[in-house]
Design a protein that fits this description.
By secondary structure, the protein is mostly helical. It is about 75% helix and about 0% strand.
């Protein structure tokens, strides 16, 4: 026991500061949100205990159900399109060895989201931008607004996935590809039977992280549309913000935060399950 205590004390100076920060920044607010979800509170005065009333109110709220539906759509989009783009271009980089394209693809990730979102807002402008050219106000149409914002986010995001996948591909032995060429394999067969199986752990990990990030999206929607028009781009994060700081319903906002945390925890649970099964992720 003493040896274990000594090891813990020896490690603590290295992990202690980060652990303390996480307790105050993550664990503390998480517990507070859980507690406040059972109270009715406007942010001023004393909270009033209401039990499960906030949960019943939120889960029967059409705005919440709509925001949840939009988050599901957003997650499906980002689990498919940008990951497919990143994989495809990473494979092309492997074949061509044009590594100088990597910084170009990664550049949008380094730019501030607020700046990029504002630029895309001007691009979609129905008077001066793309909307004037195609004759459709993409952000003003309830059936296209969410997809327009998702497209802008994909433009800024897929390059990151490309760099991650290309880094994983570089860890594959060239001998496998050389042997496949001698066996007469074409590019598609190389990608299907060598590249994909070798980088499956990276793909699965990025899929899981995408689920977590998709339920935390706020900045893109808030800067461009603030959830409009008519709630067609409302996500859980933007609805939570409005509940807390516009309607002053902190308890209901806490419930929405718990729902977001549930989906993130579910993704982490999947990751933990795969690792317990011995799957390399």
């Amino acid at each position: 026991m003493r040896e274990k205590a000594k090891k813990v004390l020896g490690i603590f100076p290295f992990i202690g500061p980060a652990l303390v920060i996480n307790v105050f920044v993550i664990l503390g607010p998480s517990i507070l949100a859980l507690v406040l979800s059972f109270f009715k509170w406007s942010g001023l005065g004393s909270p009033v205990f209401v039990g499960l009333e906030n949960f019943l109110t939120v889960f029967s709220d059409p705005d919440f159900l709509q925001a949840l539906y939009h988050n599901v759509i957003w997650t499906i989009i980002f689990l498919t399109i940008p990951i497919a783009m990143g994989l495809g271009v990473a494979e092309l980089l492997r074949r061509t060895k044009w590594q100088f394209f990597e910084p170009l693809y990664f550049l949008p990730v380094t730019l501030p989201v607020v700046v990029i979102a504002l630029i895309w807002g001007y691009i979609y402008n129905p008077i001066k931008g793309l909307g004037k050219i195609i004759g459709i106000g993409l952000l003003g149409n309830t059936s296209t607004a969410l997809y327009a914002i998702a497209f802008a986010n994909i433009w800024a995001w897929w390059g990151f996935l490309c760099v991650v996948f290309y880094s994983a591909i570089q860890g594959i032995s060239n001998e496998l590809y050389e042997a496949s060429v001698l066996d007469g394999a074409n590019n598609w067969q190389q990608f299907r039977h060598i590249t994909l199986p070798q980088i499956i752990p990276t793909i699965v990990f990025m899929e899981i992280m995408t689920i977590i990030w998709s339920f935390q999206v706020f900045d893109w929607v808030w800067v461009i549309t603030q959830g409009g028009p008519a709630g067609s781009t409302e996500l859980l994060a933007t609805l939570l913000y409005k509940k807390a700081f516009y309607s002053y319903k902190v308890g209901e906002a806490s419930v929405i935060g718990l729902v977001m945390a549930f989906f993130g925890s579910l993704a982490v649970g999947i990751l933990y399950y795969l690792r317990r099964k011995g799957i390399e992720v």
